[in-house]
Each structure stands twice: as structure tokens, then as C-alpha cells.
């Protein structure tokens, strides 16, 4: 049972990280009509990235490079490891 929970937590966080990476890739290909796929990914990713974008804006001001996906992935890894260590 505990192995199943561990696998589920790991898979959930890996999927979130893949969605963040997909959103980054989608931001580079603006001319391709991805429609509902891009909207679905953005709906999942934007609530995760919003606090990091706000924090980076307060620290760096306006920047042409968005580092919020990198910070979000690092934070997700830290949170995943904390959850796994607390549970097991």
C-alpha cells in the first residue's frame, strides 16, 4: 500500500513538471494553433506559476526572461521530497 502511495505522489508531481515544461515549449511556438491543448495546460500551470511570477516581479522588476517555471519546478521537487520523507 505504501509503495502505491509513493508511486502516485511521484507520478503526480512528475506530471505537473511535464505540464510546466509543455507550457514553456508552447510559449515559444505561438503561431501554431494548439487551441484546447494549450488552454488545458495553461489552466493547470498558471495557478502554480502565478506566485513565482509575482515574487520575481517584486525582486527583479520587469524581465524579458521568465524564470518562474524554473522556480516552480524546484519548489515542486522540494515539496515532493518533503511529503515523501514525512510519509515514509
Describe the fold and architecture.
The protein is mainly α. It has one domain. It is built from 3 helices and no strands. Helix 1 packs across helix 2 and helix 2 crosses helix 3. The mean pLDDT is 91.
Search tags:
mainly alpha; 0% strand; 88 residues; 3 helices; 83% helix
What's the total helix number? Answer: 3
Beta-strand residue fraction:
under 5%
Report the structural category: mainly alpha
Q: Please bin the fraction of helical residues.
A: over 70%
The rounded Rg comes to 15 Å
What global shape is seen? flat
Mean pLDDT value: 91
Instruction: Tell me the span between the first and last alpha carbons.
Output: 12 Å
Main β-sheet description: none
Would you count the extended β strands for me? 0
Count of the separate structural domains: 1
What is the assembly state of the chains in this entry?
single chain
Low-confidence stretches: none
Order of helices and strands: HHH
Protein name: YggT family protein
Pfam family, one: CCB3_YggT
What is the structure about, briefly put?
This protein has 88 residues and is mainly alpha-helical. 83% of the residues lie in helices and 0% in strands.
Topology:
Layout: H1 2-28, H2 35-60, H3 68-87
